[in-house]
Amino acid sequence: MVSHPPYSPGIAPSDYHLFRPLKLFLKEKRFAKYEDLKMAVFDFFDSQSAAFWKKGIDDLPERWLTVVTNDDQYIVD
Fold it and tell me: Annotated Gene Ontology MF terms (predicted)?
């Protein structure tokens, strides 16, 4: 089992698949209102293929194994 504090500002291994493409999608976009940002994130989710989501799920066992074998470290150099 991977230990987690009650609140962790870091991201979980399961988030890596999602946040890099989302960051690239939002790169250099500017939002005047929170609602505009929210709609852009929804647009990103809607634009992803089923294969994108499947890959994220399929990669979880390997990501978790990396964390467990590296003493709960998410990022290993």
Answer: nucleic acid binding
Please give the structure tokens belonging to residue 3.
């230990």
Distance, in Å, from the CA atom of 35 to the CA atom of 60, rounded to the nearest integer, reads 31
Question: What whole-number distance in Å separates Cα of residue 32 and Cα of residue 30?
Answer: 7
Residue 11 near residue 19 (C-beta atoms within 8 A): yes
Distance CA 31, CA 29 (A): 7
Residue 61, CA distances (Å) to 12, 27, 77 in order = 13, 29, 19
Query: pLDDT (tens digit, 9 = 90+) per residue, 20-47?
Result: 899 999 999 999 999 999 999 999 999 9
CA distance 25 to 19: 10
In whole angstroms, what is the distance from residue 44 CA to residue 56 CA?
Answer: 15
Q: Write down the pTM of the prediction.
A: 0.64
